[in-house]
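Title: Prediction job returns without error message
Component: structure pipeline
Severity: low
Priority: P3
Assignee: unassigned

Description:
Job completed but the reporter wants confirmation the result is attached to the right record. Sequence as submitted:
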Amino acid sequence: MRQFTLLIGALLLLAACETATKEVDLEQEFADRCATRGYVSGTPEFKKCVEDERQIRLVKRSAGAVY
């Protein structure tokens, strides 16, 4: 039983790492999109653009779209 518990724990950790990696990749994608639109990294406008991209993703996910 202990081995089973350790296996499940390891699988949960791996799943969490995969999710975190996807989130980091999405953040970079959002930043790249904003940069190609002419926003300068570190400015309030750039931060707002990235936040807008996050919100768009959330709306699409809640509507069932694959993002």
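Comment from assignee: result matches the submitted record. Helices lie at 2-36, 44-62.
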